[in-house]
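Title: Request for sanity check on TetR family transcriptional regulator prediction

Description:
We are preparing a figure and want to confirm that the structure record we downloaded matches what your pipeline produces today. Could someone re-run it with the sequence below and paste the raw structure tokens into this thread? We only need the token string, no images.
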Amino acid sequence: MSETSEDSGAPAPGSRRPGGRTARTRTAVRDAVLTGLTEHGYPALTVEYVAEHSGVHKTTLYRRWGGVEGMVADALDLAGEDAWTPPDTGSLAGDLRALAREVVEGFSDPAHAAAPTAFVGAAFQSPRAADALRSFYAERFRRCEEVVTRAMDRGEAPAATDAGAVVRAVSAPLFLRLFVTREPVDESVADQAADAALAAVNAGVFGRRTERPGQASAPGAAVGTSAAGS
């Protein structure tokens, strides 16, 4: 294995975004990271493993990514650069159900679930991976807000509905089952999550609220109080 010419210099780890041979190197490293995370998990992933499976010299890996944390974070960054767009079924109910079903399908199919599940696991053990995962989902949710914006334009949702809160409400109960309680999920669970979010939209739960200066927060609204802090 030898270093390639495009790797000369010392940019910030994982910060390059050019095309050509450097892009191919980045993709090769991403694929090796995914394989390593899937097969062995984050604690067992090493620079040596990525070097062997990507064909990129470990000196280059250290120079460009700084180590395993940087490579995992950049793999997530690369995943977030795709062209994915949210569904457009023609109705808010249909769009929310389609979004929920995508979550279930993505994490239930063994052929597709291993990599994203491994990324979530890495985020629990690496602060940098956690930051990258947060950025990845922030971008995903930002794209998903379009389904709520369209619904407001069609008059299906109250004006000034908090689109970000709506799309997070759809996936939150699914992620709870997948990663916290480890309960099974299927299409019926996905539809239930979507329908619950839709009912909340129709009830005005997700209307944007502006608290007036000096106005007291609702009881229990602050994290760390009452039962949450006991």
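Thanks, this matches our download. Residues 92-202 form a domain with the Tetracycline Repressor; domain 2 fold (CATH 1.10.357.10).
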